[in-house]
Structure formats: structure tokens, C-alpha cells
Amino acid sequence: MMQESANETISNSSMSQNGMSSLSSQLDAGSRDGRSSGETSSEVSAVELLHLQQQQALQAARQLLLQQPGSGLKSPKNNDKQRPLQQQQQQQQLAAQQLVFQQQLLQMQQLQQQQHLLNMQRQGLLSLPPGPGQPTLPGQTLQPAGLSPAELQQLWKDVTGSHAMEDNGLKHSGLDLSTTNNSSTTSTSNPKASPPITHHGISNGQSPVLNHRRESSLHEETAAAQSLYGHGVCKWPGCESVCDDFGQFLKHLNSEHALDDRSTAQCRVQMQVVQQLEIQLSKERERLQAMMAHLHMRPSEPKPSPKPLNLVSSVTMSKNLPSVSPPNLPQTPTTPTAPVTPLSQMSQVPSVLSPANVPSMGAMRRRHTDKYSMPLSSEIAPNYEFYKNADVRPPFTYATLIRQAIMEAGDMQLTLNEIYSWFTRTFAYFRRNAATWKNAVRHNLSLHKCFVRVENVKGAVWTVDEMEYQKRRSQKITGPTLVKNLPSSLGYGAALNASLQAALAETSLPLLGNPGLMNSASCMMGASPPCLMSGSPTGLLQGTTHEDLNGTLDHLDTNGHSSPGYSPHTQLPPIHVKEEPLNMDDEDCPMSLVTTANHSPELDEDRELEEGNLSEDLE
DNA sequence: CGACCCATAAACATCC
DNA sequence: CGGATGTTTATGGGTC
Fold it and tell me: Does residue A106 lie within 7 Å of nucleic acid chain B, judged by its CB?
């Protein structure tokens, strides 16, 4: 689970994603001269265009070679009658050798790049379905088009070879051609930059077909280029050139970062960077798992004594614990594997992972806990393994848990039985005393307005009326205390959080947490804020913070939308899950706001908007 | 101390 | 009839 999430996180993270897609698209372009316009109407047409472009590029490359005065490779057809045949042959040989050599070099580079890509793909970095800007290895997408890898490679070599020649100063007389050729090469190699320049190139004599193809992919290419442009500055590694506008940037990109050895090298470096980050991530993940394993695998303490709990409680939340174990509490380690380890576990895990959590042990949630704890999504995620294996009662109310279960469902709805399953699956604690907690679940479902029962084809499913849920929470949290809570809670784990969050931010790993939530690619870019918080290993701490933030948000949200006395009831029908088979692409975005009742689930844009609002609110 | 929240238990109703 | 599912009421501990 955690690994899954991590992978997804990686692939989802804006950094890796943008980075990779742009990177790979460049490399890709280089490797196959011509990127499929992905989005083009039909695959066939795209393929055709691609093929055509490749041919043209190849031709251009050959022409360039032919026109090279000195060492140009002359085709048999172009015999210079005035020169002795021998001489011509020698020249040809020379040029051919030169070309071969260059091709070999480039081929090596390409292989390296491919390896990188492959590695990353294997690691899930490039798991996205091939699409625009999506890295595709020659053999993968192109082969279907009818081109063998060998052919493609040859094409690539041809093109790059010609390009390399240009770099070698072999472009004089063939200026026109080389320019054209150049543009074609770069345009394909650097999708982002290409569009504009491509136009020039095209106008300079490129075939209409090619022109057309470029037009079609112009949009995506431009879009891709945007990831390299921000705040008026070129974000190409080590560049930072100031560009007044995007157009200028594109020119800059094309001129300064065209496909050449330097750019290629930089790409490789960037790949390495990404790889390093990934490695580091996996290490950190391992560490986290080890920590968690250590904490809950610990040779179970003799017995869950209240003391430890008290200790914990005293440290963190206090009161809760004394009451300690509910009847069914861990006291009786039903599972040998998951010794209740209350003490050590709690004192450590929670303390490490989250303060709010700690208390959980004894009495399940209390207002207090609830107040400080955050949306499960974020909180549980980081400690997923922990709760899954440790027979520890989660510090959340049934309502919270139920909501989380539902939220994690792809379609935001679950049958009672599915909710049960989620409980048992997610928490070791709920693998016992089924009658008790199941009854409680049912009780909560019926009791709380935020849970809406929906008649379905199959039967009945339960959904969450986010409005109601938030309303409830905001009511609890609201008041003067709300404001106070935020800062205090923030300060709570400040030290830990600060560094961590900073690290995360820097690393651009927004979606680090939420295993199940990150499944959908759609979430990747969308739900970062929440996910980010949740993602951090310090989940709970952050969770706390988050919760508060969440509460604040909720507050703001409700108030913001209908400031004076929002009328919770009348507003929007709570999630119409029933009528419409929602296709929420993401179960991710655990964020309550995302699911807010009033909007149809489908829109990622909405999500982004909400996100925006969210962040705004936060600020 | 009272209001409120939450968990738990249980009676009862419905449906399959 | 029995089990699953829902609803409702009661009770008690904890928090504010």
C-alpha cells in the first residue's frame, strides 16, 4: 500500500511529472525525430504524419550532407563530373565514416537515454499512458506504426547526425536547407520550443503536410514548454534567462536549448537528478517503514498498561487515556502478530507520527482528538501500515472513519458491507468485536445527517454529504477557539513539520501520502495541498495541522459561501451519487472540499479551482 | 454542573 | 425464520 502510494506519488508529483514529460518528450523527439501528435484526431493520421515527418527529416539530413562543400557526402547521383571518380569516392568514404562515427556517438547517447526512460518506467515514473508529451520509446509507439526499431533508430541517427554536422560547422552553403533542417530537427526534438520556430521553418520551405502536422501538435508542444517557463524566467536547468513573454521564451528555448550535445547532456543530468530524488524517496520510505515496523512489531509489551498510555497522554492529549481501553480494547491481544503494544507503540508511534494520534489508544477519539486530528485520508495514510497491523484503536470517531471509507471509494459510495470491509481491512483493531463496532457503524450512519443513504440498483449505498459533515465539524471547531487552534496546533509540530514540509516542498512531492487516494492520475496535479500535508511522514503531526486547517477551511468555506448563517440544509442536494453513476476518477483527493456536495464529481478543473480557493483560504 | 459529543448496547422495523 | 440492514432510544464516559 504504502509503496503503491509512493510510486503513485512519484508519478503524480508535479515535479516528476512535468519534469519527466518534458524531458522525455525532448529526448523522445531526439530519438525518433517527430513526436506523435498524440492528440491528433486519429492514431493513423498521427502515425502517418509522424512517418512523413521522419522521412522529411531524413531527407533534409541527407540533403544537408549532400550539400556540404568540403566533406559533404555526395550521393552517386550528384556526381561531380569534373572530379575524378576516385576522389569522389574517397570523399564519400570520408564523409560516411564521419557520419557513422557521429551516429555511433549519438546512438550511444540514445541508448543511455532509453535506459533511463526504461528504468523510470519500470519504477513507475513514466507509467502514464502514452499521450502527448508522453515519453515513448521508439519501439513502443512507433513500432505499431509500422516502423521497426531499427528503422526508427536509423531515422534518428540520420537526423541527429545531420544536426551534429551542423554543430561541426558544416552548414554554410546549405544555410537555407540547414536552417530548415535545423528547425525541423529542433522542432521535433524540442516540442516546446518548436511551435513558433517551426512555423518559420515551415514557411521557409517545409512541406505543407509537415506544416500541418506541426500545427496539430503545436498546442501540446506549447503547453509542454510552459513547464519550462515560469515567472518570466526560463526554467531550463542552469539557465534562468529572463524572457518577457512566452513568445520570447519560446524563441529563447529554441535557440538556446535546441537539441544539441549540451541540451542532451543537460537532459541526462536532469534525469539523474530525478533518479536521485527517487532513490532518496525510496530510502526515506524504507526508513519510514522500518520505523513503523519497529514500533508496532516490537516485541509486544507484556501488557498494555495504562501507565504508558498515561504517559503518552500526559505528553500529548492527556485526559483521554485515563479512561483507557474500552471494553474491547487491545488488552487482549487477539492477534499474536499485532500485539497491542499500546505503550511503546503509542508513546512512540504517535508521538512520532502524530500527537493527536497518541491518545487514540485508550478511548477512541474524543472531541478533543477529533478536533485536532485530521482527515483520515491524510492521517491514516502515513500510518496505514501501522493501523493495519497494530491492534490499536484509531483515534478517530466512527463518523470520521466511515466518511474516510466512503471517500476512498472510487465512486464515493459504499454499501454497508463495503464499509465493514474497509474497517477490517484498514484497521487491525476492527477485526475483533465485530458485533460491537458494526453496530456502531450502523448507528453512526443512521445518526449523522452527513451520511446519506442512497438507493442503488444493487441495493443501498452510503454516501457522504460533505456539507453536513463540514458543518458539523466547523461547528465543533468553530468559535473563537478555531482561530486559536490553528496556530497552536501548527506550532505543535512546528519543528518537525517545518523541515519536513520544506523538504517536501522543495522536493516537489506534493502527493506523498494517501495510498489509496492517489490511485487516479487525475489527482496528481490536483489535490496537492491536502495530499501534501498528508503525505509527509509525520502524517499525524501534519494531520493535526491539517485538520485544523481543514477546520478552518471548513469554517471559511461555509462562511465564505454563505457568510451570515448559511443554511446548511437547503443548500444543494447532498451528493447525488445515486442518480448519477459518478465517475470520480479519483478517490484521492480525500479533501473534503473536493467532494463538496454542490459540484459534480467529475471535474478536475473544479478541483483545481477548489484547490486554488483552498490555498487562498489558507493564506 | 450542564450541554454536548461519542461509544456502546439494544430494541425494533424492514427487507431478502 | 434468520440474517443483514436501518432506525431509534438509552446509557455512560469524557470534554468544554
Answer: no
